[in-house]
Amino acid sequence: RRNLLLCFDAFGTLFSPRPGVPEQYVNVARECGFRGPLTVPAVTESFKKAFADQQRLYPNYGRASGMGAEKWWTNVIKFTFLPFNKKDELPPELAPRLLRRFGSGEGYRIADPNIPELITQLKDRPRHLEGHTNRHRFDRVVVGVITNSDDRVPGILSSLGFAVSPLRFGSPPVDVPASPEQYQIDFHCMSYDVGVSKPSEGIFKAAELMAGEVLSASTEVESPLHDEQASWTKIYVGDEFSNDVVGSMRAGWNSV
């Protein structure tokens, strides 16, 4: 059996902010009545510092410290805007509005409108090619997401119209076998759940385990992880050279 494991980065590859994150921060702050002297360039620099400070103090979006992603991002928002407010206070609705916005499709657009249909066609292809001789044909295509992110990614993708499986690293196994065509995204491997980030080999190995779980949940395969006759082609699509290209290749994947 020949299987394809195709995984994507999330931010910048499957979806992108619309408009840029700092511009949205400025727009929402003004809608909330923020009185400080905001400019997009200044907020850009302040956001970078706030983000880096929180990652240093509470790595992996606060997961290890028990803070959680929502509180972590609330801190980023707070420290992004405080330099522009002499009273050391923010409009009470500012952080909740930004959290909702960037936790759904409201703050993003699909990076390439053709991606969902291309994934669907790719996953349908093995079924359509049955009975045909084709050295490039795969018996099964598994599509996943590998991303340095918190746990909001599945909700964002779902909000943007992707058919998203609930399966994520560390979650309970899927009880009901899913057909290959049921989901466009079969699983998620987020650094928030895995505990390591790209370019670490560990997050790519976690995705390989998840692919085995996907096939285990299928009626087509009984024990894919121990099937010596099965072979995998592993491809990763991302937009950063160090994290995505170098990281995936070191883990034994092909990179796009």
From TrEMBL:
Coiled coil: none
One cellular component (GO) term of this entry: nucleus
InterPro entries associated with the record: HAD-like_hydrolase_domain, HAD-like_sf, HAD-SF_hydro_IA_REG-2-like_cap, HAD_sf
The organism's place on the tree of life at top rank: Eukaryota
Protein name according to UniProt: Haloacid dehalogenase
Organism, as annotated: Cercophora newfieldiana
Upper taxonomic lineage: Eukaryota, Fungi, Dikarya, Ascomycota, Pezizomycotina
